[in-house]
Specification:
The chain has 406 residues and is mainly beta. It has two domains: 188 residues, F-spondin domain (Immunoglobulin-like), CATH 2.60.40; 184 residues, no CATH class. 9% of the residues lie in helices and 30% in strands. The chain is built from five helices and 22 strands. Helix 2 packs antiparallel against helix 3. The longest helix is centred in the middle third of the chain and has 9 residues. The radius of gyration is 25 Å and the shape is elongated.
C-alpha cells in the first residue's frame, strides 16, 4: 500500500507544540533499591484508507434507474476540507457519465461555513473515451462533453445539519423535455479521508485528460457500479491520529484520570479528549492524592505508522494508567479499562478501551466540522464518561493502538 505521509502539524488547533516532561514524584529522592524502571510505548497501527465514507444510490422504482422527474438522496458527513464525489451514467449515451471536478463538490466556503442550496453548477458531463458515437471501441482520454449543459439535466441541492455535520445531497433528473433527455444509472459516491493537511485521495474515481479505468468504464458504458462499489468498499474506513499520551504512576484503587459512569471532573480530561492537550490534567494531578509520577510520551500528534515512548519509575505495589486522544473525534480518548500493576511487562492493548468523555456532541469520526482535526470546537454536552459504542464503524481498539511496556 502506498505510504501516506502525515505532516507533523497539530490535528487539533488546541494542541500545544511542546510538552514539559515532568514527574511530580515526591518520593524520587528516597527511591528504594527495588524500584522498577520501565518504558511504555504507544504505537498508532491503524490502516489509512482513502475514503472515510462511501456508498451508492439508485432509483426507487421497479427498475433502479433515475428517470426524468425523479430524485434520489445521499446522506454523508464531512468537515471543511472535504468534498463529495459521485458518478452516474448518462443513460442515453455510449460512454458518458455525470460527475463533478476532482476532488468533488465543494461543501464549505473559505470561512468554513457550509454551502447549502442549489449546487448544480458543480456537475459536469464527461466522455469516458472508450466508445465512439457509433458504439465502436476507442482509446481516448476522459474529457468533458462539449455543447451540453449538464446543470440543465441534473439539479443538485445540499442541506446541512450543523450539529451532526451531516449533509443531504438531493439529485434530481431534470432532463425531461430537453434535447438531451436521459435516465441516470445507479451511482456511487465517496468522501476522501483528511489527515490534517491534505486529502488522502484528491482524484477519486478518475483522472481527467487521462485514460479511463475499469471501474468508471463500467459505469459510463453500462451503468454498472459493481466494480466501483467493491473498490470503494475495500478502501473506505475510519482512521485517526493519536495525541501525546499522559502516563500516571499512582497508589490506590481509584483511577486518577477518569471514572466510568461519572461526569468529567474538570481536571483536564476534557482538554485531552477534545484537543489532545495534556497540560491541564498533567498540572492538576500534581496535587492529587496517591500520585507517584506523571510522564508525557511524545510532543506532537502521532500519525498512523508512528509511535512514541517514555520511561518511568515505579515501586512495587504502584499502578499505572494512561490516556491519549482519539484524534479524529470530538471528545474520545483511549485509556486502560482496568487497574494495571506498574510492574507489568508486555502488550497492554487488550487492557485498553475507547471512551467518550461526554463533553462534546459526537460527529462522524474524521468527518465532523466541529472536530479539532478541522480546527473546530465541539458543541458542549454534559454526559457521563462511557465506552464508545457501535454508532460509527470505528476499527477495533487493537487495530488502532498498540500499548506495550518493556
Amino acid at each position: 500500500m502506498k505510504k501516506i505521509f502525515f505532516k507533523i502539524t497539530a490535528f487539533a488547533t488546541g494542541i500545544i507544540a511542546a510538552f514539559t516532561l515532568l514527574s511530580c514524584n515526591d518520593s524520587d529522592n528516597n527511591m528504594m533499591d527495588n524500584s522498577l524502571q520501565r518504558t511504555i510505548t504507544f504505537e498508532n497501527i491503524v490502516t489509512p484508507k482513502d475514503f472515510v465514507e462511501s456508498g451508492s444510490f439508485q432509483g426507487t422504482g421497479a427498475v433502479p434507474v433515475i428517470l426524468p422527474g425523479q430524485s434520489v438522496f445521499i446522506k454523508f458527513s464531512a468537515g471543511k476540507a472535504q468534498a463529495l464525489m459521485f458518478a452516474t451514467m448518462y443513460g442515453a449515451s455510449k460512454d458518458w457519465f455525470f460527475a463533478s471536478q476532482q476532488p468533488g463538490i465543494k461543501l464549505f466556503d473559505t470561512s468554513g461555513k457550509a454551502i447549502t442550496g442549489d449546487v448544480s453548477s458543480s456537475v459536469l458531463l464527461w466522455d469516458n473515451g472508450t466508445k465512439d458515437n457509433t458504439g465502436q471501441p476507442e482509446s481516448k482520454p476522459i474529457t468533458q462533453v462539449p455543447n451540453v449543459n449538464a446543470p440543465q439535466l441534473m439539479k443538485l441541492n445540499l442541506d446541512y445539519n450543523e450539529m451532526t455535520s451531516e449533509f443531504t445531497l438531493t439529485i434530481t433528473n431534470t432532463s425531461g423535455g430537453t434535447a438531451n433527455e436521459t435516465p441516470f444509472s445507479p451511482g456511487v459516491w465517496a468522501v476522501s479521508n483528511y489527515n490534517g493537511s491534505q486529502l488522502l485521495n484528491s482524484a477519486p474515481f478518475f483522472t481527467p485528460n487521462s485514460l479511463s479505468n475499469p471501474e468508471i468504464t463500467d459505469i459510463a458504458q453500462m451503468g454498472n457500479i459493481d466494480k466501483m462499489k467493491a473498490k470503494l468498499s475495500s478502501n473506505t474506513g475510519i482512521m485517526t491520529g493519536l495525541s501525546p499520551a499522559l502516563v500516571v504512576i499512582y497508589r490506590g484503587d481509584k483511577n486518577p484520570v477518569y471514572e466510568l459512569g461519572k461526569m468529567d471532573n474538570g481536571m483536564g480530561l476534557k482538554e485531552i479528549a477534545q484537543f489532545g492537550n495534556v497540560s491541564k490534567l498533567q498540572n492538576s494531578l500534581k496535587s492529587f492524592p496517591g500520585i507517584k509520577g506523571i510522564y508525557v510520551a511524545g510532543n506532537a500528534p502521532v500519525p498512523p505508522g508512528n509511535k512514541v515512548m517514555i520511561s518511568f519509575k515505579a515501586d512495587p505495589g504502584d499502578k499505572i494508567t494512561y490516556v491519549t486522544m482519539f484524534g479524529f473525534s470530538n471528545d474520545w480518548f483511549y485509556a486502560n479499562e482496568t487497574n494495571i500493576d506498574a510492574a507489568i511487562k508486555g502488550d497492554l492493548s487488550s487492557k485498553t478501551a475507547l471512551f467518550d468523555s461526554g463533553t462534546g456532541v459526537d460527529q462522524y469520526p474524521g468527518a465532523g466540522n466541529r472536530q479539532a482535526l478541522f480546527g473546530g470546537t465541539p458543541q458542549s454536552e454534559t454526559m457521563v464518561i462511557s465506552k464508545v459504542g457501535t454508532q460509527y464503524p470505528v476499527p477495533a481498539v487493537q487495530n488502532v493502538i498498540k500499548v506495550t511496556v518493556n
